[in-house]
């Protein structure tokens, strides 16, 4: 296979998978604590709007990301207020956040920027830049192996911004948090048996709010990435189901960080390959329809959620409101 094609597929896979990885980790932390989070899509969408509005108005990358994370954390706390504090239905609350974000971002965009719900483009100085922009050219000049190192390593692996590498590092960080710290042990326990955690003198409510806070921070990074790295401005419903794809990846990964990472990379690869398939003529079929190509990642999401590959075991207390015994 052509090295340039391999490098392009690796690069596209990592770029597309980054918001999925961040969102899947966010959902994993919330659901490990026993709180179902269907609202990943809405939080990522609202965070993208906040990042685009903040970046366009204030011209600061840091402020744009902080605004995105603040908005997503606020939505996570709203979800916690409804479901943890008042024991509401977690699925209904998550869907309400999705619907509210889809409508409110469009309304605010029209009211503030008068561009049909879109925001002004974020300037190039605000957008996230590649950490090593000259890596591909430098590796291309290595005698003997430059033809491979340049496109595959330089373009495929070293041409990304800090959030791409940060998302991969966060997989390791979340794994360490869950399986190597006292907080992680308690978080996993509260998702399995909150009564036991409460009996040990640990606040179930506090643990779940802590998980939702981390959940909001990661959703904010995912939404900020969409604007500051992939698209130059916000457009209504620009998340295009990525939150639900991340949810599917988390379930397919059995609520564990590393398997969820591989599922996100699989979605990213399929999306990257779908882009390459547009306009391609297949023997006996002809040109592949664009609509069929674009539907491939979502089709895989449905297949995985239907349990085609294995059966996932959810945390025992997932979706069950906790009522403190007196």
Descriptive overview:
The structure is a single chain. With 326 residues, this protein is mainly α. It has one domain: ABC transporter involved in vitamin B12 uptake, BtuC (Orthogonal Bundle). 69% of the residues lie in helices and 1% in strands. The protein contains 13 helices and 2 strands; from the N terminus they run H-H-H-H-H-H-H-H-H-H-H-H-E-E-H. A two-stranded antiparallel ribbon has the order 1-2. Helix 2 packs parallel to helix 4, helix 2 crosses helix 11 and helix 12 packs antiparallel against helix 13 (290-305). The longest helix has 30 residues, at 3-32. The termini are far apart.
- Strand arrangement, major sheet: 1-2
CATH class: Mainly Alpha
Class derived from helix and strand content:
mainly alpha
In total, the number of domains comes to 1
Q: From the 3D coordinates, which CATH architecture would you assign?
A: Orthogonal Bundle
What is the residue-averaged pLDDT? 88
CATH topology: ABC transporter involved in vitamin B12 uptake, BtuC
Give the overall form: globular
Strand share of the residues?
under 5%
Oligomeric state of the chains present here = single chain
Number of helices: 13
User: What is the count of β-strands?
Assistant: 2
Q: List low-pLDDT spans.
A: none
Supply Rg: 21 Å
Gap between N and C termini, in Å?
66 Å
Largest sheet: 2 strands, antiparallel
